[in-house]
Amino acid sequence: MQPGQARLVSLIDADFERLRTIVIRKGRRSGMTACAALIAAWAGTVLTPRFREHLLPGEDFAVTVVATSREQAGVALGFVKRFLAASPILAEQVIGETTDSVSLAGGCVIEAIPCSARSSRGRANGIVILDEAAHFTDTLGNQSLPAVLDALSPPLAQFGPLGLMVLISTPLDASGAFFELDQQASSGQFDDMVALHMPTVEAMPQFAADAERERIRNPRRFAREWQGEYTSGEESFPLAAYDQCVDLDYDPPDADPDRIVVFALDGAVSRDAMALVGLDLGWNVVYARAWHPPKGGTIDHREVLAELLELAGRFDMLVVAYDPATIHGLVLDGLEAGLPMLSVSQAAGRAGGTMARHTAALVEALHERRLRLFNSPELREHVARSRFSARSGADRLVKTRSSDKIDLAIALAMAVGVRQDLEREGLLHPEPEVEFVPLSEVVDFELTRLGWDDEVIYHPGPRDDSDFLVWNAEPGSVW
Fold first, then answer.
1. Where are the alpha helices (DSSP H) in 158-245?
2. Amino acid 478: pLDDT
3. Domains identified in the chain and CATH numbers
4. Which pTM value belongs to this model?
5. Which of 10, 43, 122, 151 has its CB surrounded by the most CB atoms within 10 Å?
């Protein structure tokens, strides 16, 4: 058992009947999901007789593990199943299993469910474990933890001193239901609540090197996900990291038909600017431009389309990534004109959505100094007016003030993120096509098939008609 796991188990062993709520603010990879599963298995087997004292004859009770998704809930339940199977005595108590639950002979059902209040109402919950509770969001990116708490907290009262809720999570910004519960548990005002803080390296010392690498790549994410510290929802974009990537001697090419470029278009009509950024495969920003609506008017999308068509002639345009929310007409015209339009939604969704992943990609590219920027005062201004918000589950770029323009910053993040996505999917550097042909088609001398006893190296090809030979040629010869 690792240090962090031993700390939690010792706390529950010593104060189980006193505590009603345990809030664990932890770093990632700290082993808490496995530890929570151990608690669930213990409560559903060893403690079953005590829980049954609070039930009607024939009534079952539940130990409920709630996670951010059905897949993650399945991971937690997998730990439970392995713990039970590891003990012959406990394994005998298992009378049924499904993908989402384990039924035990004593009348306990250990279930794992996603973070929806609808899927968790109406049960006699004796133990509730909320895994990654700060990240509970619905499909639209709205926080769902308050609704889950409202659904699952009341049934715990049925079990008196045995009812226990354990909330485990890496934190986000210093706001929201998880933050508020953590503050209550840390205040010392409530005798039945306790808060634990477990940075990754304290819980799992073997991950110190991984934590240090993350600190260099993304300091803000490191603070949350490895240190277990809350971040500020008002934190501005790291402008110093941006400035260190500006090469004052770099003039982006006006045209280079052989240069493959990923373009990203942040669309707008009348309120915001429309921004277009181009990034080549060598991480050089080659283009950045914003179109602003005239006072009382709208952006002329025909002008934007004309610019895209011209850029398609000046560069090898790989894709034009765009958010489909606002520029349907422009996209249809671009597709009709043969432009490689690629839909990339900026909606929040789970874990902050695609924008959060692209924001992280931009931050890491800047801190690692992979990105090469030219001197663009307007692009820098848009970046400087951006700040982070993790309310939807991970950092997204938002405006400091509602009147601020950050569209070029959004387009830059999208270009970096899409370029990284394409590389991860193997679409930037496809495998070369290889054709095997008989050697007799490419040499003009008579070939002899030799055996292994001859002083040659014999290579059979993938087909019977493509054998080839390599022999000891004279120095300097290449075959």
1. 177-187, 200-203, 208-217, 219-225, 239-243
2. 41
3. 3-206 (3.40.50.300), 239-424 (3.30.420.240), 439-471 (no CATH)
4. 0.65
5. 43
